[in-house]
Write a structure and sequence with these properties.
The complex is a heterodimer. Chain A has helices at 5-13, 31-42, 60-63, 91-94, 103-116, 135-143, 157-174, 197-206, 225-230, 232-246; strands spanning 2-3, 18-23, 48-52, 71-72, 76-77, 80-82, 85-89, 124-128, 148-154, 179-183, 209-212. By secondary structure, chain A is an alpha/beta fold. In chain A, the strands form 2 sheets. An 8-stranded mixed beta sheet of chain A has the order 6-7-3-8-2-9-10-11, with helices on both faces. Chain A has a two-stranded antiparallel sheet with strand order 4-5. Chain A is globular, with a radius of gyration of 17 Å. Chain A starts with a strand and ends with a helix. Chain B is an alpha+beta fold. Chain B is 32% helix and 26% strand. Chain B is built from 4 helices and 6 strands; from the N terminus they run αβαβββααββ. Chain B has helices spanning 3-17, 36-46, 81-89, 94-97; strands at residues 23-29, 53-59, 62-65, 71-73, 108-112, 116-120. In chain B, the strands form 2 sheets. A 3-stranded mixed beta sheet of chain B has the order 2-1-6, covered by helices on one side. Chain B has a 3-stranded antiparallel beta sheet with strand order 4-3-5, with no helix packed on it. The longest helix of chain B has 15 residues, at 3-17. The interface between A and B is medium-sized, with 36 and 33 residues. Strand 1 of chain A pairs antiparallel with strand 6 (116-120) of chain B.
Chain lengths: 247, 121
């Protein structure tokens, strides 16, 4: 027996040219913030869809400060929460109530959402993922083999060591190196870790690294997409992001 | 209605995965809560130009509680229309709105009656 949603998912995603998966094996490293900012800055130049695949702990709706929901026609149409920016979250269906699901159901949620969602006009899809290398990541690795994986690490030795493992798995599954996004959460930069073995191994292994700037008052920028785009350090990050897309 | 999307996905599965076969049974899980008549009609429209015959069978939903092992059926009578609609779009919302009738846990597994599957005859 074959699950029909796999063909449905392919059909709904057939016009999406680029998929960016923001992931990390470590929690609290800033994945959702980076998903929020990447989708905000990319949608300056193209039509972007952003999916919150952290089904049990969704937070992108808070970052975007949106309570918009989908409309329905031959599937569901994600709301355009800002110009050229479309958003999908389980909160549309859960009303932000707590959801506890076992791993076996994660695959069903991913397949179902992607089989019924119309990404009309969306060129780039940004997927925010939960931490760890469990069902959601494994399903994404299965269905989005050609995606660009942005692996996020904070400035911590614990983060370096776990992220190395995720990079290794992504390389094994996709045959390609992901982009490492070093998130300066504490504002002290990364120089103080330059002699750390894990840090050196991480940079040597990943080869393609983006340094995400320290944002002192990020909560003030929730829902302020236009303001985010004007921050000089974010503009610099965008130029680096554009550069990586071209190589 | 996402019945049309599901019907198209079902037709695509038949055409792409079962090329050369002509007779199929389509199992429709009860938790999917799709409008069966609408789905059937959409399906017949999708396959009109193909030499394909389809039969439909709805699979009742069966759950098993992971806490007390109690087995129970999907009873939507306690749900309001919005909750039913949310489960219709994303059946895993059942874990928000349904509890084990024996121990009230929401840690249960769907044993049968989820999704849409095709089997050639």
């Amino acid at each position: 027996m074959i699950d029909v949603r796999i063909e449905g998912m392919k059909d709904k995603l057939k016009n999406v040219k680029r998929v960016i998966v923001v992931c990390s094996s470590k929690g609290g490293v800033g994945k959702s913030t980076i998903s929020y900012i990447i989708s905000s800055i990319l949608s300056e130049d193209m039509v972007v869809g952003v999916c919150d695949f952290d089904f049990t702990g969704p937070s992108l709706h808070i970052l975007f400060r949106t309570n918009m929901s989908f409309t329905e026609s031959d599937g569901i149409n994600p709301p355009e929460i800002y110009k050229n920016l479309f958003f999908l979250s389980v909160t549309f269906f859960s009303n932000d109530r707590p959801l506890a699901i076992r791993g076996s159901s994660i695959s069903d949620v991913i397949l179902e959402l992607l089989a019924i969602t119309n990404w009309n006009g969306v060129e780039t899809l940004v997927i925010d993922t939960p931490p760890t290398i469990t069902d959601t990541m494994l399903e994404i690795l299965k269905y989005f083999h050609g995606a660009e994986f942005f692996v996020v690490s904070s400035n911590s030795i614990l983060s370096y060591s776990t992220v190395l493992k995720l990079i290794s798995i992504i390389v094994e599954r996709t045959g390609r190196l992901p982009i490492l996004v070093m998130n300066d959460l504490s504002g002290v930069g990364f120089d103080n870790k330059s002699n750390n073995t894990f840090y050196q191994e991480l940079l040597n292994y990943s080869k393609r690294t983006l340094f995400f700037p320290y944002l002192n008052n990020i909560e003030e920028y929730y829902g302020k997409i236009e303001d985010i785009r004007k921050i000089e350090s974010i503009r610099k990050f965008k130029r680096e992001l554009d550069f990586y897309e071209k190589i | 209605m996402h019945e049309f999307s599901l019907a198209r996905a079902t037709k695509d599965t038949i055409v792409n995965k079962y090329n050369g076969l002509h007779k199929f049974i389509i199992y429709i899980g009860q938790i999917q809560q799709i409008d069966i008549e609408l789905f059937k009609q959409a399906m017949l429209d999708e396959i009109r130009e193909f030499n394909i015959e389809v039969y439909f069978e709805e699979i009742p939903a069966k759950m098993k509680c992971n806490a007390c092992q109690h087995e129970f059926i999907y009873d939507k009578t306690s749900l309001n229309s919005e909750e039913q609609e949310n489960i219709h779009f994303l059946p895993e919302m059942i874990y928000i709105y349904i509890r084990c009738p024996n121990c009230k846990s929401n840690d249960f597994s769907i044993v049968e009656g989820r999704g849409i599957f095709i089997k050639p005859l």
